[in-house]
Write a structure and sequence with these properties.
Layout: E1 11-19, E2 27-28, E3 32-47, E4 56-72, H1 77-83, E5 87-91, E6 94-103, E7 108-110, E8 117-123, E9 136-139, E10 142-145, E11 155-163, E12 166-170, E13 178-187, E14 192-203, E15 219-225, E16 240-244
Antiparallel strand pairs: 1-2, 1-13, 3-4, 4-15, 5-12, 6-11, 7-10, 8-11, 9-10, 13-14, 14-15, 14-16
């Protein structure tokens, strides 16, 4: 234990996580502008009833909860999935033949896959082929039907297209997960290393997933630090451990 009283701190570093209780690979979460542990206490007071005027007779202070908060700037599939309690998958490139799509003039006709490359758009009976840029415009989300399109309003067409491989995240399909986390960084004020191990932290849903903004998006993730009963022994924390150089 150092007796040095000079200890300013400004940190930077990297954080990894995996599902608690597993030997899965620890995957880096990515660039975080905030990694913060918050500890809240709970006070139990006993008032002094022995004399007029009252006051505190006794007090007990206990730890009520501990949280870790992250502001994540790498919106990877994994990070988004964790923040919206979802499941993710990789969609291989492919071809779709005669997907049935309902069309309305001046509106978007949504197609199942992202950024389709349209091969043909035909009437439901297959007898009429509609013209690109005249009857419709290709769009990353489907077909934009022109206002003067020869496609009859509120009718179905058959669309054939190809699409590139892409990721897909289904939101709110899983329960919150409990993570084991490790932060490794440096105190830029003195160049010394710091490491924090969090044994079990249960994620809350992200507060926001920004889709349009005038600045780089961030994913705000909070997790409550839970007791790990597997950690035992005198002076051994069942919550988290901090090591500093």
């Amino acid at each position: 234990m150092s007796n040095n009283t000079y200890a300013p701190f400004i940190g930077s570093g990297r954080i990894w996580a995996r599902k608690a209780g597993t030997n899965d690979a620890m995957i880096e979460i990515g660039n975080c502008s905030k990694v913060e542990i918050q500890v809240k206490d709970k006070k139990i007071d006993l008032q002094d009833f022995t004399k007029a005027g009252g006051g505190k007779y006794a007090q007990i202070v206990r730890i009520d909860s501990a949280m870790i908060s992250l502001n994540v700037h790498d919106l990877t599939d994994r990070n988004i999935r964790m923040g919206i309690f979802g499941s993710d998958s990789i969609i291989a490139n492919g071809t779709v033949t005669d997907e049935v799509v309902r069309c309305y003039k001046g509106a978007l006709a949504p197609i199942k896959h992202l950024s389709p490359v349209i091969t043909s758009v035909k009437s439901s009976d297959g007898l009429t082929t509609y013209a690109a840029d005249t009857d419709y415009q290709a769009h990353a989300g489907g077909l934009l039907i022109t206002s003067d399109s020869t496609i009859p309003d509120a009718t179905d067409v058959k669309v054939t297209y190809t699409y590139a491989g892409h990721s897909k995240i289904e939101a709110m399909t899983n329960a919150s997960i409990i993570l084991q986390m490790r932060f490794v960084g440096v105190n830029e004020a003195d160049g010394k290393s710091v490491m924090v191990d969090i044994h079990r932290a249960q994620l809350s849903a992200t507060k926001a997933l920004s889709l349009i903004s005038d600045k780089f998006a961030e994913l705000a993730l909070d997790a409550e630090i839970l007791k790990d009963p597997a950690k035992t022994g005198d002076g051994i924390s069942q919550f988290f451990v901090l090591q500093m150089g």
